[in-house]
Amino acid sequence: MSSKSDNNRLHSAAWRISLWATLAFALGTLLVFAGLHQFVASDIQRRSDAWLSGEVGTLGDVAERTPKDRLYHRVVGEVAELASREVPNRSRNRGKENDSVFFLQAGSTGPAKLWVGAGDGEANLAAIRAQKVVPDVPFHLNVKGFPIPFRVVASPINDGSSIYLGLSERDELRVLRNLRARFLWLGLLIVLFGFGIVFFTTRRMLGHVREITEAASRIGESDLSRRVPTTGHNDEIGQLSRTLNRMLDRIESSVHQLHTITDSLAHDLRSPLTAIRGKLEMSLSEAGASAKGEPMIVSAIEELDRLTEFLNTSLDVAEARADALRLTRTEIDLDEILRVMMDLYEPCMSDRGLRMQLRSGGPVKVFADAALVHRAVANLLDNELKHLPASCTVTIGLQAENEAAVVTVEDDGPGFAAEIQDAMFRRRVKGPDSSGYGLGLAFVEAVARAHGGTIFASNGLEGGARLVITLPCAQESLERSVEAVVVGIP
Fold first, then answer.
1. DSSP labels for 46-62?
2. In this model, does residue 485 exceed pLDDT 50?
3. Is the pTM of this model over 0.85?
4. What is the end-to-end Cα distance of the chain in Å, rounded?
5. How far apart are CA 436 and CA 375, in angstroms?
6. How far is 93 from 280, CA to CA, in rounded Å?
7. Strand runs (DSSP E) across 179-234, as ranges?
8. Cα-Cα-Cα-Cα dihedral of 331, 335, 340, 343, to 10°?
9. Which end is more exposed in the chain, N or C (fewer Cβ atoms within 10 Å of the end residue's Cβ)?
10. Residue 337: in which H helix or E strand, if any?
11. SS3 for 85?
């Protein structure tokens, strides 16, 4: 039972709601981060492009105003070196070597006129000349030997050459990488925290629903006074609890009224029937009773007995179909009951030329009303006794399958009439040759349903009638029968 309970918790609605809510929250958070990442990347690049455009303009002015003498390279180089120390987003712990910025002055052909940066600048110049450059428009530059691209701006000067200022995208990528790493951990914590909140809230909310379900499953036809627990909140769960309790109040009132009506009806009808039967028996015992009148009195007494049985069975079927059949449940052994009933009916069966046999796998215990089970089995055997021709065999089988007791009653007689096969469990439905009231199978079906079981009737492939009754075994009987009451029987 514990593993089954754990499995139900694992597949509970709280888990599903929490997982779907967490998935939706994670996707939403991911979309927000994607937008934030794009915004930060664009802002960093905008700042880098603004710095490049401003610095390349300054360097261009310095290059144009500085005389082209032997101090030209020193002046312009120092200005470029000074500018490289003002790189935006640069890591503070980086060494003195300037490998994130380069300054290059060159013409359309020939070697570089001025180079400030790491290396000799030949790879940078080759990469620049390999692509189409638009003045004053930043562009990406991939340089051989450098795994990270540069962001470069070109500006022409009066001597026909151009100056190029390049900024490595390493610091920008570092900032974005740190942003992604921090978001990953922060997002994971937020998602887990959100999952915990959703699961706790949902589990607590659905816990009230589970309590209502468990309480409702314990409300049986023999105990309608119990009520589902209510909460102090005026939310949907509280309204559901109060609505169910009001419904149970109405059901309890209706069932009590039904019991009162049936008890009154039974008393009002049984009393005069008993009085009439008593008077007939007195008339029969009087010495003055004629031999001609004696059979009529005996017949009248038998009709009264049949009428009394019809009344009792009709009331029981009506109560069972209204889910109001009063049960006194105990643990009983079906194997023992079937053997007792067969011993009881075997003499009558033999007188009619019928044979009986039992195929049982051993004791099978159910939690049921012993008196009603006895009456149900008696109705089945009475039907066989009344409708089977001589030389037929009645076979009763009993076995346990999937936590249920299966009782099979079959014969090799003519079987059920075709016109009643679709309605044989309805009241007052009987075969064309039947002399009864059509309540036998209806009562058996009512007893089976009242105990949370089922009944199925059909004709065998080789002829004969076959009835299969399924009742929950003892450990599951109460739970299943109450579930049948909660779901409702049409």
1. HHHHHHHHHHHHHHHHH
2. no
3. no
4. 31
5. 16
6. 120
7. none
8. 170
9. C
10. helix 334-351
11. coil
Count of alpha carbons within 13 angstroms of residue 319, beta-carbon side: 25
Q: Which two tokens stand for residue 474?
A: 């003892």
What is the spatial distance between Cα 422 and Cα 91, in angstroms, rounded to a whole number?
Answer: 87
Torsion (CA) 287, 288, 290, 295 in degrees, nearest 10 = -60
Quick check: 202 and 17 in contact, CB under 8 A? Answer: yes
Both tokens assigned to 225 = 């006074």
With tokens 């199978």, the residue in question is 441
- Alpha-carbon torsion 41, 43, 47, 52, what sign? positive
Q: What is the mean pLDDT of residues 321-348?
A: 83
Please state, in angstroms and rounded to a whole number, the distance separating the CA atoms of residues 192 and 172: 30
User: CB under 8 Å to 198, separation ≥6 — which residues?
Assistant: 17, 18, 21, 22
pLDDT tens, residue by residue, 345-404: 898 889 889 999 999 888 999 989 888 898 889 888 888 888 888 889 999 999 988 889
Tokens representing 420 are 């009643």
Contact, 181 vs 145, CB < 8 A? Answer: no
Residue 110 region by backbone torsions, left for phi larger than 0, else alpha for psi between -120 and 50, else beta: left
Ordered strands of the 101-106 beta sheet: 114-116, 101-106, 162-168, 150-156, 139-141
Contact 342, 379 (CB under 8 A): no
Query: Reduced to 3 DSSP states, what percent helix, strand and coil does the chain have, rounded to the nearest 5?
Result: 55, 15, 30
For the beta carbon of residue 129, count every other beta carbon within 10 angstroms. Answer: 11
What are the CA-CA distances from residue 7 to residues 23, 177, 200, 211, 214 (Å)? 22, 42, 18, 18, 17
Residue 227, token pair as written in the block? 């009520």
What pairing do the DSSP bridges indicate for beta strands 393-401 and 355-360? parallel
Closest CA to 125 of 90, 162, 95, 86: 162
* φ and ψ of 478, to 5 deg: -65, -45
User: Would you say 106 and 63 are in contact if contact means Cβ atoms under 8 Å apart?
Assistant: no
- Residue 366 has a pLDDT of 92
Burial 130-141 (b: 16+ CB within 10 A, else e): eeebeeeebbeb
